[in-house]
Amino acid sequence: MTEQVRYRIDRDLVKKAYRLCRELNLSPTQAVAMFFGQMVRLGGLPFRPSAFPALEEYGATSAQAEAALATATDYLEREREAGRLVEFKGKLP
After folding, report:
1. Angle of helix 28-42 relative to helix 11-23, nearest 10 degrees?
2. Half-sphere exposure (CA, 13 Å, Cβ side) for 73?
3. Are 89 and 25 spatial neighbours (Cβ–Cβ below 8 Å)?
């Protein structure tokens, strides 16, 4: 049995989330159901609310985080140019 629910959420946030759901090949209903499922499974939020969770959890500085992002971005660009990246369609091969 399912339940229809309504929430008031900022319009711009909803638009961005819907766009991301389309990119992930998920419906917004599926995404919210997954979020609720993880909350119930974990007995809390499935993430740690924080402005910079990785920095807070791992003790990294902003400069280290930016350097890691630049390194990862460069690596992914090289992999894309070499044809070794596969577009994610919402399911693993």
Report:
1. 90
2. 6
3. yes
The whole-model pTM stands at: 0.53
Contacts of residue 57, defined as CB under 8 A and 6 or more positions apart, other chains included, come to 48, 50
Calculate mean pLDDT across residues 67-82.
89
Ranges 14-18, 51-55, 80-84, most confident: 14-18
User: Torsions phi, psi of 18, nearest 5?
Assistant: -60, -40
Count Cβ neighbours within 10 Å for each residue of 6-27 and write b for 16 or more, e otherwise. Answer: eeeeeeeeeeeeeeebeeeeee
